[in-house]
What we know:
The protein is mainly β. It is 13% helix and 50% strand. The protein contains 4 helices and 12 strands, in the order E-E-E-E-E-E-H-H-E-E-E-H-H-E-E-E. The longest helix is centred in the middle third of the chain and has 16 residues, at 140-155. It is globular, with a radius of gyration of 18 Å. The two termini are 29 Å apart.
Amino acid sequence: xxxxxxxxxxxxxxxxxxxxxxxxxxxxxxxxxxxxxxxxxxxxxxxxxxxxxxxxxxxxxxxxxxxxxxxxxxxxxxxxxxxxxxxxxxxxxxxxxxxxxxxxxxxxxxxxxxxxxxxxxxxxxxxxxxxxxxxxxxxxxxxxxxxxxxxxxxxxxxxxxxxxxxxxxxxxxxxxxxxxxxxxxxxxxxxxxxxxxxxxxxxxxxxxxxxxxxxxxxxxxxxxxxx
Length: 227
């Protein structure tokens, strides 16, 4: 995909924590992502909507290997992409594809022809305990993404240990456009964890989809107040 200056992706996703007999805690988000090459940089402009209908804007930039995040009217946060607090807000389909090579160590990898004549790469996993999933390349993102929700649940009195929290399912799919140099046409990511609580389970889920909307010829410039 380096034959173009950059690409635009339309992003949408959702996350929820559900316990039987209780109203779910949920949120949805949409964003437009501009991802440029040489040097790599990213601009992500979106909106987060809670299950109560509350909305806030979200701005995310990645420039020079550093991530910058602004939630609503709050102050900018910045840090390396190795910081989970930054990485969880960045959606970069190209970087996710670069990590694909290591996934076969811990998940089933399927490569097959897609319905439109392209190629579909799919990773699936299930049954892993959270404690074991931490060291598996294909599962590290799911672990990183679920940690903030688990921290909130523990503050609310959920005491389940990592060894009893189970990855019920994980699916990650790339559709590649074979007619145009196997560029990423779409990227989808979904997981569900089961967290034991009071004889039942709290179901924690997340789903994200990014669709390629074509080349991006503009620039990604960090706002002056973000530095």
